[in-house]
Amino acid sequence: xxxxxxxxxxxxxxxxxxxxxxxxxxxxxxxxxxxxxxxxxxxxxxxxxxxxxxxxxxxxxxxxxxxxxxxxxxxxxxxxxxxxxxxxxxxxxxxxxxxxxxxxxxxxxxxxxxxxxxxxxxxxxxxxxxxxxxxxxxxxxxxxxxxxxxxxxxxxxxxxxxxxxxxxxxxxxxxxxxxxxxxxxxxxxxxxxxxxxxxxxxxxxxxxxxxxxxxxxxxxxxxxxxxxxxxxxxxxxxxxxxxxxxxxxxxxxxxxxxxxxx
Amino acid sequence: xxxxxxxxxxxxxxxxxxxxxxxxxxxxxxxxxxxxxxxxxxxxxxxxxxxxxxxxxxxxxxxxxxxxxxxxxxxxxxxxxxxxxxxxxxxxxxxxxxxxxxxxxxxxxxxxxxxxxxxxxxxxxxxxxxxxxxxxxxxxxxxxxxxxxxxxxxxxxxxxxxxxxxxxxxxxxxxxxxxxxxxxxxxxxxxxxxxxxxxxxxxxxxxxxxxxxxxxxxxxxxxxxxxxxxxxxxxxxxxxxxxxxxxxxxxxxxxxxxxxxxxxxxxxxxxxxxxxxxxxxxxxxxxxxxxxxxxxxxxxxxxxxxxxxxxxxxxxxxxxxxxxxxxxxxxxxxxxxxxxxxxxxxxxxxxxxxxxxxxxxxxxxxxxxxxxxxxxxxxxxxxxxxxxxxxxxxxx
Lengths: 262, 396
Hints:
The complex is a heterodimer of chains A (262) and B (396).
Chain A: H1 3-11, E1 16-22, H2 28-40, E2 46-49, H3 60-71, H4 76-87, E3 94-97, H5 100-106, H6 108-118, E4 122-124, H7 134-143, E5 146-148, E6 150-151, H8 159-165, E7 170-173, H9 189-199, E8 204-207, H10 213-219, E9 225-228, H11 230-238, H12 242-261
Parallel strand pairs in A: 1-2, 1-9, 2-3, 3-4, 4-5, 6-7, 7-8, 8-9
Chain B: E1 5-6, E2 9-13, H1 16-32, H2 36-48, E3 56-58, H3 60-66, E4 70-75, H4 85-98, E5 103-108, H5 112-124, E6 127-133, H6 134-139, H7 141-149, E7 153-157, H8 164-178, E8 182-185, H9 195-203, H10 205-218, E9 224-229, H11 233-239, E10 249-257, H12 268-271, E11 273-277, E12 279-284, H13 309-317, E13 320-326, H14 327-341, H15 347-359, E14 368-373, H16 381-387
Parallel strand pairs in B: 4-14, 5-6, 5-8, 6-7, 9-10, 9-14, 10-13
Antiparallel strand pairs in B: 1-2, 2-12, 3-4, 11-12
Helix pairs in contact in B: 2-4, 4-5, 4-9, 5-7, 9-11, 10-11, 14-15
């Protein structure tokens, strides 16, 4: 049991809204204020992207956010430090989205230990699939930090083994390819979730490509939560200064959280 | 050893959206290499189209001039499209056809693998898209035009550093979206399992021929096999049949650019650390937080921040030795081979020639060395001229 499980328990079946931002885009101070603003606006869990030089699962919007953060010298130590500061004011579940090399280079045990110390509850690693995740299992358990598993529309007969061992929540990928806002989805969500529901014992959240209230309202029936990344990140870029960035994100999250939950 | 692993290296560190496509690819590859019909077709194209077997040429003047061991050149430069790249591409495109794929995508640095893929796609009537770093499309305009002539679409990649690693990123992103009808023709001995195994199997023809040819000419195995290493496809192809022959010493030459103690090199074995990128655990040039570093070499084909996982393993176990070769040494070797043997090597291959020039004089006359001349150097004449400070008038 960690903050993620507790949050879903407290929701008692109400849908949840999960926004994503890249940590350090454009600077770490803004990231901290965005976390507080998004929580206030109705976010139930926040994904923090750890910037990486080669984010192969990301579309252009988040790729650029990674580049902006790296250019400003943001690194994992700075991010952990910020998480520690956030934890003094907030207990919202926080999950990293990061590429395996960032974690591996930091040191597996050192990383998970830091997650526990500073207050990170889970980690999404797009390039560490089920078959390779054995190498971090020991530390996940020891420090009670969950690897959040992904399931894609092409997972087919992999769904059973992934869903059965997953912790926290299942990150269900709405469409193939990379992150980024989409106008429409090709996936047959009913069939996709029917298959997932056969095995899943934990909440399922749907992400990749979702950008507006109409989509959130349409898709929330399939899942326990909606995840939005690129659309939030685009607003951070759009805002001219820190104040405007925070205002735009807060308005958007408030709107989307409402659409997800009502 | 676990499937897809070379000691701690290798593996399948790929996004979930690609895992199913990788399993399908692995299943078809396993099936194909046990199928006589596959080999019949592959060998047919290698022979009739790619001009194999390539010659094993005794470099008499070079041998005499260096005054040490006997030197043979494996002439991959004489293949159709001018390099070893065509071997692997033909194998993969036949796999693609067997899997019913209609479209192929590829990454390319300097454009050699892109040109080879576009060539094979033209031959088999398949749609082809090549991802190429924007910087590289500018540096290699002629290869972009060549691919266009062959009917391929070249997509410039603006993200990151706009070079080979970014082209790889983009090809993987595109594949994740279109794996249903699209085959990713990966050009080097890198990537998630089963790619390193596939590339080794399809480049193995280099060492298979070397072995037959040297036995015929010398009646014994070579003492040294030398190849240049970027991702490591021509090297793994040159080593494959000799890994199990302990008397054959395997030597890789990696790009030291302006020197491994400067920031301008691509010497992954000398300076890299264990990491994970492009689906594999291997050695990578990276910073203290795992950020992948920019690399540099005069040779665009060796300009990659990682190395194939089997090379990392051969290095770690000591089965193969890898040495850094600078731009200057490579350019000197480029000029040397051109003058001495009348063969203009690719600047990539010139790294292997440079390593041979360092080693051969100290070796006994009765020892035998084979250098894999992985490609021809016509494409490099301009950049070598620039390096040497020779200026041309702009041609209309």
